[in-house]
Amino acid sequence: MNKIFAMVTCILIVSIMAAGCSGGSVKTYSDVGDTIEAAVNGEFVISLDSNPTTGYSWKASYEESEFELISDEYEQYETEQMMTGVGGTQYLRFKALKAGNFEITLDYQRSWEGEPAERMVFSVEVK
């Protein structure tokens, strides 16, 4: 009886630990034509081509009561040789703060220039 109890307890503990390790994945969006769908307090990522070696990067504009920018990271494309000036991908991770239909505007620009080289407006539906 003790062996069965110990085995059941062990299986239960392993199952609980495995369930705790499997967190939900965060969806990544890069197509401005797609509506981003998120839950309140849910997170999502917008990924866009970028090349900060030229001075350009994506700057996000949004209502701070609707979203929180969790992180803004850049990953350079891999090359066979060490090359400067190679582009990559910029990842902007957001947390949705309240329900509704909103927009996040992303401007690709140099910090010292007034007008962006490119502008993308993402529609976000938060449930």
Tell me briefly what this model is.
With 127 residues, the protein is α/β, with parallel strands linked by helices.
Q: Can you walk through the features of this model?
A:
There is one protein chain. With 127 residues, the protein is an alpha/beta fold. The chain has one domain: Immunoglobulin-like, CATH 2.60.40. The chain is 16% helix and 46% strand. The protein has one helix and eight strands. The protein has one helix spanning 2-21, and strands at residues 27-29, 36-38, 43-50, 56-61, 67-76, 88-96, 100-110, 118-126. It has a four-stranded mixed beta sheet with strand order 1-3-6-5, with no helix packed on it. The longest helix is centred in the first third of the chain and has 20 residues, at 2-21. The radius of gyration is 21 Å and the shape is globular.
